[in-house]
Amino acid sequence: MTDPRRRVPRTDTLLADPRLAEAERTLGRALVKRVIADAQQKARSGDITPDQVADHAVAALPSGAASLRPVINATGVVVHTNLGRAPLSQAAIDAIVTASGATDVEFDLETGRRAKRGRGALAALAAAVPTAGGVHVVNNNAAALLLAAMTLAPGKEMIVSRGELIEIGDGFRLPALMESTGARIREVGTTNRTHLRDYADAIGPDTGFILKVHPSNYLVSGFTSGVSVRELADLGAPLIVDIGSGLLTPHPLMPDEPDATSVLRDGADLVTASGDKLLGGPQAGLLFGAADVIERLRRHPAARALRVDKLTLAALEATLTGPPPPVAQALDADPADLRARAERIAAQLPDAAAVPCVAAVGGGGAPGVELPSAAVSLPENYAAALRVGEPAVVGRLEGGRCLLDLRTVAPEDDDALVEAVRACS
Ligand SMILES: *Cc1c(COP(=O)(O)O)cnc(C)c1O
């Protein structure tokens, strides 16, 4: 009897299989060879037979060359940091595809001359916040704050309330980030209470600016007091407000969430925000402010290191000018519609029931705001199987059940959700 290892098909032979040849075209040779090597190894160790190697390799091919997989966010957390924050609108996705080749991001096709980089996105941002004298876009809100500190407070002090020295996630702390520029934090007030006079007493020749940070991922409640933007603006020192979530105008569901338009109107010199939270766009840091302040930021040498790529500019512009992105749709969803969808989905599945539940804004926005919602409730053991399914579905565990909260699921994904659950039952 021949040694079975001798009959394991050779790599060349396998690469000639039409299915694997096609995969080589879309995924690249190295990746396909790695999948083939795994299958050959399984045959050598007797896990599969030699004539199963090709089929096994085909089945093990990833769907794309990158390892990131699509996920249906059924957590009920609208802006979920671990799931990539805001899902992009179709308009933004289309804009990214268009911009992905050679594109006129920094070129005027009429004159054949160099043009201002990202002018379309900047114009859309300026139009969305007309109270801003100037706008600028960097890589994320952390970069926006970094640029502000480098430009407006080199070697100087940034006055911040002790109640606003926040950690933004994954161990990153805003004070440490700001101090990495060489500017110093001057803490004022206490964790729960800071008064106008605390700020006023701290202002002096070393003051670079006052920084007001929106506590976007926690609530300080009880015996508390803070100082409004309007009062701080009256102190005369430059005032920067980090609103975090990226609301450009007030949102009725989130009355306590600051927005760029109102904060500028109240006298802030500069406002910073994220692009991929409540705005529902790509990761970006948005800066709104007086024209001369924005111009100084743009001209700082480090601005070049913080600039965004053409894909971000494309997605940001389309988010601002196009139809409401998924985040806006999730926030504005009608609870009655959510209930109807939950009932329709549950009726198609064994072990499932439609239940009312409460969704959250999440992702550094509107802590404490409860969004009435509806979910498909499944036995708890579905959760793990759904996570590794295709597409992956991430729900949340509550009261010993796996809830699939429909507020964060796009209605067009309902059928895929049904299929994903069926594949687990
Ligand atoms: C989310 C957040 C940040 C960090 O923003 P990134 O865009 O992730 O860099 C900073 N400040 C506040 C108040 C935030 O909510």
Automatic annotation (TrEMBL):
Gene3D superfamilies reported for this sequence: 3.90.1150.180, Type I PLP-dependent aspartate aminotransferase-like (Major domain)
Assigned keywords, A-Z: Cytoplasm, Protein biosynthesis, Pyridoxal phosphate, Selenium, Transferase
Cofactors, names only: pyridoxal 5'-phosphate
Protein biosynthesis among keywords: yes
Domain L-seryl-tRNA selenium transferase N-terminal: residue ranges: 5-44
Pathway the protein contributes to: Aminoacyl-tRNA biosynthesis; selenocysteinyl-tRNA(Sec) biosynthesis; selenocysteinyl-tRNA(Sec) from L-seryl-tRNA(Sec) (bacterial route): step 1/1
Subcellular location: Cytoplasm
A Pfam family that the UniProt record links to this protein: SelA
Post-translational modification N6-(pyridoxal phosphate)lysine, affected residues: K277
Primary residence: cytoplasm
Reaction(s) catalysed (UniProt annotation): L-seryl-tRNA(Sec) + selenophosphate + H(+) = L-selenocysteinyl-tRNA(Sec) + phosphate
Keyword Transferase: yes
Cellular component terms (Gene Ontology): cytoplasm
Biological role stated in the UniProt entry: Converts seryl-tRNA(Sec) to selenocysteinyl-tRNA(Sec) required for selenoprotein biosynthesis.
HAMAP family: SelA
UniProt name for this protein: L-seryl-tRNA(Sec) selenium transferase
